[in-house]
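S.,

As promised, the magnesium ion run. Input:
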Amino acid sequence: QEKINHFRNLHNIHVTGEDIPEPVETFEELATRFQLNARLVENITKIGYQQPTPIQMQAIPLVLQGRNILASAPTGSGKTAAFLIPIIQSLKCFNNFGYRAVVVSPTRELAKQTFFETDRLTLGTGLRTHLLEDVPKFVKRAKKNRSSRFDILVTTPNRLVFLLSKKPAVVSLESVEWLVIDESDKLFEADKEGGFRDQLAVIYKACSSPKVRRLLFSATFAIEVEEWCKQHLDNLAEVSIGARNA
Ligand code: ADP
Ligand code: MG
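Predicted complex:
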């Protein structure tokens, strides 16, 4: 335990919550400890990631434990792979259940970047990712009942809520096992009129499977986000890198 604490201090990893798993130091260790999918390991190597970043060291084992998480780490510190690697590992391969993971990004540009990262990390795994861009096309396709061709959905909250609010809804999130709110600090911060909170409530409700886990990632620690998590999420684990409000 002392060794683990020393390792966390060394990498500026702060954790709170019950039953926090040990961080991993290397991708090799991660691969053996969690029997990572060989293609996923190959993709990580091909991309050129040599060592997990501090947020990845702690968040990947936490997400693989299958729990609700609030994570904060500076911009550019690899948060995308911190949630994508364990989600890809957990989803394994394509199936016909419909979306099993949803990543909500504040802007189209960030959604696009997340999509590219998903694309290269899922290469050869059979998992399929959909970047929600063309809403009218999506609606048309959904009417032909062809929306279960993907496992992962990457979207902005506006587009997703638009689809969920149609009567009848043109997207189903019933099979979602992982709901990721990326840049949650920004989404809550810009939320003077409560618009995002309302959108989040719609999305949260639509992810109706008892299996769903929620992961909130942000660059800064935001008290509003923590309050929302404490109110809505059981057995929450919090992980932050560096000073809490850096
Ligand atoms: P954040 O979401 O924390 O701002 P990103 O996930 O966008 O950061 O990652 C920033 C950059 O770091 C990206 O170019 C990404 O490919 C790269 N990156 C992620 N993980 C690692 C790693 N373990 N080693 C080296 N580079 C990494
Ligand atoms: Mg990011």
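The two ends are 27 Å apart (CA to CA). The beta strands are 13-16, 69-72, 101-104, 129-131, 152-155, 178-181, 213-218, 237-241.

- D.
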